[in-house]
Write a structure and sequence with these properties.
The chain has about 190 residues and is of the alpha/beta class. It has one domain (about 1-185): Spore Coat Polysaccharide Biosynthesis Protein SpsA, Chain A (Alpha-Beta Complex). Helices cover about 40% and strands about 25% of the residues. Strands 3-2-1-4-7-6-8-5 form an eight-stranded mixed beta sheet, sandwiched between helices. α1 runs parallel beside α2 (about 45-50). It starts with a strand and ends with a strand.
């Protein structure tokens, strides 16, 4: 049903945290495959992928280009893009399933973006306040994850190997074709 693409920078801990949050989705049959796309080439993430039973792709380039490479390799009709270190709330499985069913049965393509949540263990700072204001004014940011049908992703042109490509895709979606999901995503 769903392929998850996670770009990484060769650091084990954030990738493992994200993978741990995905285990219930795999057990429920929502996730068909997980692809770790490593841009560092150190071998650390390849080992993590092997241990976790994930697909692995080594890639040199921007994070957006790495996600595009992962999307080309993915086999499912639905794609979920998550940054390494992003952890989904427990309710994401049911909501994601319902979202996919609603969008699949309608004639209107939509993409889902998870609701941002700051880690309860991090100290609040002025930068957090500014990021909050930016989300209110400009809309969601790319670190909030993206759930999108493959055909809709391809019609929009997907991620490109260009600066600010992730933000460009979110802008192309516009407010009318994206849904802010209730499930939260804690971004490290």
């Amino acid at each position: 049903m769903l392929s998850v693409i996670i770009p990484t920078d060769g650091v084990e801990q954030p990738a493992v945290a994200t993978l741990a949050a995905l285990i219930p989705g795999a057990a429920a049959g929502v996730i068909k495959e997980v692809l770790l796309v490593d841009r560092a080439g150190t071998g650390v993430i390849e080992h993590v992928a092997d241990v976790a039973g994930c697909g692995f792709l080594s890639f040199q380039g921007t994070r957006a280009a790495a996600m595009a490479a992962g999307a080309r390799q993915a086999r499912s009709p639905w794609l979920m893009f998550l940054h390494a270190g992003a952890v989904l709330d427990a309710g994401w499985i049911e909501e994601t399933t319902q979202f996919i069913q609603r969008v699949s049965s309608s004639d209107r393509p939509r993409a889902g973006i998870f609701r941002y949540a700051r880690s309860p263990y991090s100290d609040a700072s002025l930068a957090d306040g500014l990021k909050f204001l930016a989300r209110l004014i400009a809309g969601p940011s790319s670190d909030q994850g993206l759930l999108i049908a493959r055909d809709h992703y391809e019609r929009l042109g997907g991620y490109a190997d260009a600066r600010r490509s992730e933000a460009r895709l979110l802008r192309q979606l516009g407010r009318s074709s994206r849904t802010l999901l209730r499930s939260r995503i804690i971004v490290a």
